[in-house]
Design brief:
Blueprint lengths: L5 E5 L24 E5 L1 H6 L9 H4 L8 H12 L3 H20 L4 E3 L3 E8 L5 E4 L6 E4 L5 E8 L1 H6 L1
Antiparallel strand pairs: 1-2, 3-4, 4-7, 5-6
Helix pairs in contact: 3-4
Amino acid sequence: MAITQVKTVKKTAPAARSNPIRKTAGKPKAAPGVLKLVTTKAANKERPATPAPKPASMTGPLPPIVTLKHLAEWAGYNHGVAKKQAIEMFTGFVADIGRVLKKGNKIRIPNLGVLHVRIRPARPARKGRNPATGEEIQIKASKASKKVAFRVAKGLSEAI
C-alpha cells in the first residue's frame, strides 16, 4: 500500500509590477496565509485508469457508409485522443486538403493514393455533323472546368 504525500504550498505576493493600479480593484483580496494542497505525481499514477469503452461502430458490423465522424472516433480510440478533439483534427485535415487542392497542388498519401485537380480548358463553339443523318449542327461553346481526381495507390488496389 503506497502512501500519498501531500505538500503545502504557501502563496506569496508577486514581484513588483510595472503598473501599480490593480485591475481587480473592486474584488476582495485573498488572505495572505491561504494554503493550497498539491498532490505528488505518485498519487496520480496510483489512480486506476478507466479505459474508454470501444465505440459502438467498432464492436458490431461496419456501418454501410463510413463517415468522417466514424474515422475520427476510431482514430481517437486507437490513439487515446478524445472524440471531440479527434473530430476537430479530421475536420481540419479535410480543410487543409481543400486549401492545397485550390492552389492546384497534388496530395500524395502513401498506401492510399494521389489527389489532384484536373483542368479542362474552354472550347469555342463549332460546327459538327449528326452521324446518323449527316445533317450539320451547331455545337455550343463549353466553359473551362476543374475536377478533383483521385488515383488509387498500387498497394491499395491490389489489396482490394
